[in-house]
Amino acid sequence: MTAPIPRDIPDLPAVPGMPKPLPSSVPAAAVLTPVRRRFAAVFRLLTALLAAAGVTLALLPGSPLRVLGHFAIQSAVLLALVLTLSACRAWTARRPLPAALTGAVLLYVLTAALAHHLLPAGAASLPSPTGGAATGLRSAADHLLHTAVPVAAALDWLLLTAPGRLRLRHAAPWLLLPLAHLAFSLALSEILVTGTTAPPLLPFLDIARHGYREALGTALLLGLSLYALAVLLVGLDHARPDPTRHRPKTGFRLQPPVG
User: Fold this and answer.
1) Is 182:219 a contact under the CB 8 Å cutoff?
2) DSSP 189-200
3) Segment 102-131 mean pLDDT
4) What is the tens place of the pLDDT at every residue in 95-115?
5) For residue 155, which phi and psi values (nearest 5 degrees)?
6) Average pLDDT for residues 165-192, to the nearest whole number?
7) Is the pLDDT of residue 192 over 90?
8) Among 42, 119, 105, 116, which residue's Cα sits nearest to residue 76?
9) 124 vs 42 pLDDT, higher one
């Protein structure tokens, strides 16, 4: 008569006098072969050049200091810098940039595009220059910065980045730059009340025209909308599929242990 086979193997006692194994840390590069992502690098570099072209066209006909004060220009400059660095990392098979950084830049570009297309005409556009050629340059800059560049940045995020890396805790720090820009626009609008004829950066925050209460209410509503957009971006990042994952076809499927 044989004894029943136990379902679980009991823990074996430690052998006295044997040294404990030291924990070892093996880098991922020693296990997985680095892969150059050439298509992602080229696409990001082209998007960065597109953003730089839009900023250049906006700077040509107008005052550089005033043009650089617009949020669309600032977000495009940040996008060009971040995508250029990200393209270099993808081409050399290095680790991607932190998701908190790339997510912040994407939020800024999308915010500028949505403000341009959803707010009343001229509310979030670049300053209007005088002259036929200058008007054409301004129109081309508007199309690049508010349509082409945001679409390209969104496609890069959707199709060329791994999902699930954004966190809800990133949403609040992302708002620092937009809120600082709103505060600067409100302060500049208050200075312009003294009698100067220079138009405000954001017409919907014009204190001389709308008053303090309406301008502050609009700024608060914009801040809440920005936070909602940031939370939506995090939610979409966790809901979208992974376009960068390639599962090998092995011909068999692992099953859970029996017994």
Assistant:
1) yes
2) HHHHTTS--PPP
3) 78
4) 999 999 999 999 999 999 998
5) -65, -40
6) 82
7) no
8) 105
9) 42
Least confident of 11-15, 27-31, 33-37: 27-31
**Side chain identity, residue 234:** V
Domain boundaries, the chain: 34-239
* pTM for this entry: 0.76
Residue 255 reports pLDDT greater than 60: no
Indicate the burial class of 84 (C-beta count within 10 angstroms; 0-12, 13-18, 19 or more).
middle
Question: Which helix (H) or strand (E) element contains residue 101?
Answer: helix 99-118
Please, how many CA atoms are within 13 Å of residue 12, restricted to the half-sphere of its CB? 3
Cα separation, 125 vs 112, whole angstroms: 9
Is the model more confident about 252 or about 98? 98
End-to-end CA distance of the chain: 22
CB atoms within 10 A of CB 55: 23
* 154-158-84-34 Cα dihedral, nearest 10 degrees: 180
Which residue shows structure tokens 């054409």?
136
